[in-house]
């Protein structure tokens, strides 16, 4: 590898570790600081942290690969995600920020569920914590695998060394710096991703002679590549069910713990509008850049005949072939940034559940804040070690399970978050039943030996759709069949309404 590329990557790693050290000195004195940054994030850090932790490696590899293979029809996923993220900012973000503080200062999602419904049985906390711990450990493993493969394919290292480098740097700044380190590194990583996803497609387009020439090359290859309504891979028109399934990815936002926890940490609900504008601007430009990278990369490959590799590596190929080694290192750091930002968020959310929802709630109720922060750090290390162990088998079926984690979280948590924030009549039993029904429906939809028109249920419709609907219906029915929530819970709901009216 060129010296310039190594220098860029070294500077990136040093920056991440320096941010972790800064955060360690600033905000790790108690659990609220370690897990939520003391609820003191600025709007810009909140916005880019939420975006970077959301987008992961799929932004720089998955989306370009899909566009490369299927053409512009893959944009339906981006459209659905954009709509879902915007609605998440409008409906969930401000209300969750106020409600978690009013509900006995909840600092984790399971904590909020328990306080919101006054669940003295602790069933909600246990069930939601188990879901988070299991799925996010697998999710983290997927990110570590991606890092290992990136180092192996791009830097000529062993796969195992790539695992340890990726996980080691993330664990270092997450373990010591906590939520503030994760959020600040996410901000820097989000900036790197943004610049890279603007720079690469623009340079490719210039190499090909401009936008018109680039589109002409694509249409010469296959006129359906630029058609939103036709899958260029099969040259088949997209039906209504296919479009619904692609756009349904947006439903997942309401239930992703590593994203919505950012909303709980902003320093004041009044600043949520600023965060929304920054976050949505970042997301829209980044998604357009990501899609353009795939399409323009295909045009470059067709015109030059210089690429015949995995479509998901087109960003890596373009970075190495078109840029000076120093810039190429920066662009490869963007992929690492996407991977690491998500791993760090998932590590911290899993750690918070292990520490606050299991250790403190059931094992050491009298634990001091210092002990809980120490346990949080130990939990980060434990989850990372398990993730590395699972990642050693690069062909493990874990990756298949992780590909459905978005749907699992979206269906199990999404409706509960929405109803708990906006419907005073919702009950504890409805939350428990809805969570179980949503998760079970997703698993049934994926694994049941049932077909429709010769297709599996999951191929016929993305599993988040039936899971989300089943969970929502269960919440409504069980709530109406249960006794109304007590006066204290209703008073807290009204207090949230009053504060939001005052500030928004």
Write the layout of secondary structure elements.
Elements: H1 3-26, H2 31-36, H3 43-55, H4 62-70, H5 75-102, H6 109-116, H7 123-155, H8 159-207, H9 211-221, E1 230-231, E2 236-237, H10 240-247, H11 257-265, H12 272-304, H13 314-322, H14 325-363, H15 369-391, H16 398-402, H17 405-422, H18 428-447, E3 451-452, E4 455-456, H19 457-460, H20 464-481, H21 487-503
Antiparallel strand pairs: 1-2, 3-4
Task: Give a short summary of the structure.
This protein has 504 residues and is mostly helical. The chain is 76% helix and 2% strand.
Rough shape?
globular
Number of strands: 4
Tally of discrete structural domains: 1
Strand order of the largest sheet: 1-2
Alpha-beta classification: mainly alpha
Poorly predicted regions? none
Strand content: under 5%
Q: Judging by the overall fold, what is the CATH architecture?
A: Up-down Bundle
What is the makeup of the main sheet?
Answer: 2 strands, antiparallel
Q: Element order, helices and strands?
A: HHHHHHHHHEEHHHHHHHHHEEHHH
Instruction: Work out the radius of gyration.
Output: 23 Å
> pLDDT average, as an integer?
86
CATH topology: Sodium/glucose cotransporter
Gap between N and C termini: 53 Å
Task: List its traits.
two-stranded antiparallel ribbon, mainly alpha, Sodium/glucose cotransporter, Sodium/proline symporter
Structure, explained:
The protein is an all-alpha fold and 504 residues long. It has a single domain, classed as Sodium/glucose cotransporter. 76% of the residues lie in helices and 2% in strands. The chain is built from 21 helices and four strands. It has a two-stranded antiparallel ribbon. Strands 3-4 form a two-stranded antiparallel sheet. A hairpin with a 2-residue loop joins strand 3 and strand 4.
């Amino acid at each position: 590898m060129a010296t310039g590329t190594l220098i860029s990557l070294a500077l990136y790693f040093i920056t991440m570790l320096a941010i972790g050290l800064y955060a360690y000195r600033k905000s790790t004195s108690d659990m609220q600081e370690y897990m939520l940054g003391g609820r003191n994030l600025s709007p810009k850090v909140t916005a880019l942290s939420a975006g970077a932790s959301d987008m992961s490696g799929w932004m720089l590899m998955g989306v370009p690969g899909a566009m490369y293979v299927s053409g512009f029809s893959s944009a339906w996923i981006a459209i659905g995600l954009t709509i879902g993220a915007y609605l998440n900012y409008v409906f969930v973000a401000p209300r969750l920020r106020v409600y978690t503080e009013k509900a006995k200062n909840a600092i984790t999602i399971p904590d909020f569920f328990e306080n919101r419904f006054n669940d003295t049985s602790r069933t909600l906390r246990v069930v939601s914590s188990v879901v988070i711990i299991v799925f996010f450990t697998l999710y983290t493993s997927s990110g570590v695998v991606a890092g290992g493969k990136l180092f192996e394919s791009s830097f000529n290292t062993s796969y195992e060394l790539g695992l340890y480098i990726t996980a080691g740097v993330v664990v270092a700044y997450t373990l010591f710096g906590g939520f503030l380190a994760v959020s600040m590194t996410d901000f820097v990583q989000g900036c790197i991703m943004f610049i890279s996803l603007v720079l690469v497609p623009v340079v490719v387009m210039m190499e090909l002679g401009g936008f018109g020439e680039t589109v002409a090359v694509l249409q010469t290859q296959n006129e359906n590549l630029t058609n939103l309504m036709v899958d260029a891979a099969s040259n088949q028109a997209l039906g209504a069910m296919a479009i619904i399934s692609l756009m349904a990815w947006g439903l997942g936002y309401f239930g992703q713990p590593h994203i919505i926890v950012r909303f709980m940490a902003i320093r004041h609900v009044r600043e949520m509008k600023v965060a929304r504008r920054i976050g949505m601007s970042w997301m829209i430009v980044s998604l357009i850049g990501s899609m353009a990278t795939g399409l323009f990369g295909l045009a470059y490959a067709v015109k030059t005949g210089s690429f015949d590799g995995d479509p998901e590596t087109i960003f890596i190929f373009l970075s190495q072939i078109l840029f000076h080694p120093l810039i190429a290192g920066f662009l490869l750091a963007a992929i690492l940034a996407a991977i690491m930002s998500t791993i760090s968020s998932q590590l911290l959310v899993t750690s918070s559940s292990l520490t606050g929802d299991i250790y403190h709630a059931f094992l050491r109720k009298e634990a001091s804040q210092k002990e809980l922060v120490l346990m949080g750090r130990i939990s980060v290390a434990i989850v990372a070690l398990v993730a590395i162990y699972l990642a050693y088998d690069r062909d493990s079926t874990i990756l298949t399970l992780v590909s459905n984690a978005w749907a699992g979280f979206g269906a199990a948590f999404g409706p509960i978050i929405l109803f708990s924030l906006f419907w005073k009549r919702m009950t504890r039993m409805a939350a428990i039943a809805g969570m179980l029904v949503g998760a079970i429906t997703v698993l049934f939809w994926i694994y049941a030996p049932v077909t429709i028109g010769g297709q599996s249920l999951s191929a016929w419709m993305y599993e988040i759709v039936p899971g989300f609907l089943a969970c929502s219906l269960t919440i409504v029915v069980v709530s109406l069949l249960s006794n109304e929530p007590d006066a204290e819970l209703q008073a807290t709901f009204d207090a949230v309404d009053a504060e939001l009216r005052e500030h928004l």
